[in-house]
Amino acid sequence: MAEGRVGGGPGAAAGIRVEAESSSDQRGSSKSGGMSRKDCIEGISSAINHPTVRFLREEMEKAGCPVWPALIKGAICSTAGDYRSGDGIRVCCNSVRYQDEINQVIIHELIHAYDDCVNKNMNWKNCAHHACSEIRANHLSGDCHYKRELLRGFMKIRGHEQDCVKRRALMSLKSNPSCSEAAAKDAVEAVWNICYNDTRPFDRAP
Ligand SMILES: [Zn+2]
């Protein structure tokens, strides 16, 4: 369980214990093209000192949201990362390649953690609730910043940011078994204006 834990690092100073997820699927981490386990855990520790991550953590604490001991873990998983209510955030070490990606994943997932905490009736099985949080996470994390979009090969400039947020929100909703593709599309459209313009806890999209 303690494997990969960062003891006295900056993460510990910030009150978050970073640890590698201990599960039987650790094998294969080095051949699947991501970062080494060590680099990944170190990357997560550095990300905790990223100004946006610090800000979100502070805002969560102010809002009375529990920042539990092992909020962020390095793991072997199939996406770039995820957040599960009560379980916390996983960074998929086998998918991430750069520090910037780790920062992005953590900021994105922290928005979900924030939403989970401040919206008392949050129901992840409800397509509209989940869609709203995905719109916010993709918008506010900078996932759709034009430089990242150029790297992905999406070159359209006008309106690219909103297209990108929609595209990525729909992609994430595919993982929700209670959201069919049609329901996901409808949900994104239905909550778009409210959720795209809801930039809490930021004054405006960073
Ligand atoms: Zn998400």
Automatic annotation (TrEMBL):
<dbReference type="GO" id="GO:0033615">
    <property type="term" value="P:mitochondrial proton-transporting ATP synthase complex assembly"/>
</dbReference>
<feature type="compositionally biased region" description="Low complexity">
    <location>
        <begin position="23"/>
        <end position="35"/>
    </location>
</feature>
<protein>
    <recommendedName>
        <fullName>Mitochondrial inner membrane protease ATP23</fullName>
        <ecNumber>3.4.24.-</ecNumber>
    </recommendedName>
</protein>
<dbReference type="GO" id="GO:0005739">
    <property type="term" value="C:mitochondrion"/>
</dbReference>
<dbReference type="InterPro" id="IPR019165">
    <property type="entry name" value="Peptidase_M76_ATP23"/>
</dbReference>
<dbReference type="Pfam" id="PF09768">
    <property type="entry name" value="Peptidase_M76"/>
</dbReference>
<keyword id="KW-0645">Protease</keyword>
<keyword id="KW-0479">Metal-binding</keyword>
<keyword id="KW-0482">Metalloprotease</keyword>
<dbReference type="GO" id="GO:0004222">
    <property type="term" value="F:metalloendopeptidase activity"/>
</dbReference>
<feature type="compositionally biased region" description="Gly residues">
    <location>
        <begin position="1"/>
        <end position="12"/>
    </location>
</feature>
<keyword id="KW-0378">Hydrolase</keyword>
<comment type="similarity">
    <text>Belongs to the peptidase M76 family.</text>
</comment>
<dbReference type="GO" id="GO:0046872">
    <property type="term" value="F:metal ion binding"/>
</dbReference>
<feature type="region of interest" description="Disordered">
    <location>
        <begin position="1"/>
        <end position="38"/>
    </location>
</feature>
<dbReference type="GO" id="GO:0034982">
    <property type="term" value="P:mitochondrial protein processing"/>
</dbReference>
